[in-house]
Amino acid sequence: MKMTTLTQLHEDIAARVKTISDHNLDWLCRLGCDGCCRRLADIPRLTTEEWDWLKIGLAALPPDQLEDIKLGIATLTQQTSRPLTCPMLDQAKGACRVYEHRPVACRTYGFYVQRELGLYCKDIEARVAEGAYPEVVWGNHDTIDRRLSSLGETRDLTEWFAIWKENKDLD
Ligand code: SF4
Ligand code: SF4
């Protein structure tokens, strides 16, 4: 089967994440650590291919969970304060409800560095400042951004939802 560009990107990120995690058994990222999902700097932006993949995950959710996410998206569109909590986070479990379908930024966060844009997890940064993880070879997020630029147009998550609602009755 021919691999899509997004699938290849997912695999390359997963390989980097595995290398870092395997060499740092006390790495902070784990199920239940959801700080990055609770302090989004702004509404997430997704390429067309990321949205198409995420939409499959959303459509497979139980109706009550999709309803909850829809309400969260509606809140996001009106919220002017920052940071934001991602509406796809299961806040009780600290887990992503669309984990297999999550956007690329969620996969790189904590493992890829682009310091000037603040994509670096504050919790991991604090550990590094204490001297932890001296051997880590961070991923370069500029490379990820270049690859994302070939995956279709980029829109806010809220815009993608609005288009989906127009084309397919979500109610
Ligand atoms: S990136 Fe930071 S907040 Fe997110 S899971 Fe990893 S350690 Fe936790
Ligand atoms: S999509 Fe999932 S992993 Fe990404 S910010 Fe939202 S809850 Fe977190």
What's the tally of helices? 8
Into which percent range does the helicity of residues fall?
A: 40-55%
Largest beta sheet: what is the strand line-up?
Answer: 1-6
β-strand percent reads 5-15%
Q: How many separate structural domains? A: 1
C-alpha geometry: globular
Which descriptors would you attach to this protein?
171 residues; mainly alpha; two-stranded antiparallel sheet; binds iron/sulfur cluster
Q: How would you characterize this protein structure?
A:
The protein is mostly helical. It has one domain (5-167). The protein contains eight helices and six strands, in the order ααβααββαβαβαβα. It has helices spanning 5-23, 35-38, 48-59, 63-78, 104-108, 122-129, 141-148, 157-167, and strands at residues 45-47, 89-90, 95-96, 112-113, 139-140, 154-156. The longest helix is centred in the first third of the chain and has 19 residues, at 5-23. It binds iron/sulfur cluster (2 copies). The site of one iron/sulfur cluster (SF4) has 8 residues, from loops. One iron/sulfur cluster binds at residues 37, 86, 88-89, 96, 98, 102, 106.
Concise structural overview:
The chain contains 8 helices and 6 strands. It has helices at 5-23, 35-38, 48-59, 63-78, 104-108, 122-129, 141-148, 157-167, and strands at 45-47, 89-90, 95-96, 112-113, 139-140, 154-156.
Map the helices and strands.
Layout: H1 5-23, H2 35-38, E1 45-47, H3 48-59, H4 63-78, E2 89-90, E3 95-96, H5 104-108, E4 112-113, H6 122-129, E5 139-140, H7 141-148, E6 154-156, H8 157-167
One iron/sulfur cluster binds next to helix 2 and helix 6.
